[in-house]
Amino acid sequence: MTLRLQARGLACERDDRWLFEDLDLDIRAGEIVRVEGPNGSGKTTLLKILSGQLADYQGELFWNDRPMRRVRQAFLESLLYLGHAPGVKAALTPLENLAWYQALAGRRGSEDARLAALEAVGLAGFEDVPAAQLSAGQQRRVALARLELTPRPLWVLDEPFTAIDRDGVAALEARLVAHARAGGCVLVTTHHELGASTLLRRIRLGGRHAA
Amino acid sequence: MPHEARGLQARQDASRTGEPGGGLAVAFWATLKRDLVLLLRRRSEVLNPLVFFALVITLFPIGISPDPELLATIAPGLLWVAALLAALLSLDSLFRGDYDDGSLEQLLLTPQPLPLLVLAKVAVHWLLTGLPLALMAPVLGILLSLPVGSYGVLALSLALGSASLSLVGAIGAALTVGLSRGGVLLSLLVLPLYIPVLIFGAGAVQAAILGDGASAHLAILGALLALALMLAPWAIAAALRISING
Fold it and tell me: Cβ B9–A1 below 8 Å, yes or no?
């Protein structure tokens, strides 16, 4: 499987300030890429551009060596994006939330798979509790359960460690490494220090373009 | 790790072929069901437009005159205007909740065609706003001494018309979802587009009262709905992309 996300000469301007300029990226299968930088340095913006959500940028994006615009459908079928907001409906239970996300991916899925995914993220026993009654960390875990349920090679995760406890962080870190080992690719922003791994690569934003 | 990479690809293919050709239907029905469940759990949001409709209509006989003849002449217009405003009232929340909790972002990132998924959301809005308004209107018609024989046409014209209202209104709701106070702007954007529906909707009831036969008006309402059904989903999808992608 080829899996390659490339950016050439990427530049983005916000409020007369260049968040980044002339950024070249080449992300391949088996890599964990951590985007670093202080608050407001454009990490989320970069992830949104790379996941095809923002059109307001300069430069070119390529997915598997073809221009992103032409292969958007194939790209979306390979992408799992978890944003700043967990995307968990407060009035629905974790099971219902996951069922909808599975359906959006075009699959009906099975209740057993969803229960197993919730157990894997440490939410056994909370399957039928409305998400509004869960803590912030637990809601984040509901969103993270999608990593187990929807097999997609490219994960783009914006601050996935937010509100997660220490054990959960270790488990998620191990999950990211396992995904990269299995030929997947992870693009992540976090302020949490990821354990040294040979798969880990860093992209540093901010500081250089302070105008 | 090419060997393991193939494993992941195979898993993905297997999961994709597990639901042959039904991906879009699954996503459509799941979105429909999800929104229905969501709205039924927050009943006040469903009841608000209905209560508004009932209140406005009860106030008119008190404010204008209890004279049945006068009320009967203005009833078609009153009922239609009040129903239209009630439907408008509920539009702002159509995409707001999804925008706030990040589900809208996810909806835009699915490989499924967005126009069809938003159509599911609009259908739920109509089922829980437009349709109940249409069913309630004849009861309120009694209050305004609407002549017997026009109740059926009133309900039918409102059911047809409110579907167009939901579709057109959703375009405005999608355009203003990123704004913190989009309510007023939404009304300004959408109201001019509501006028044709209002003219032919109230006209249908008027015609039924006069005994002219309302089928021409109803046919035009149907045509407007067909047009909205064809074009609005694409406009809503495009508007959402503009709102989200800034």
Answer: yes
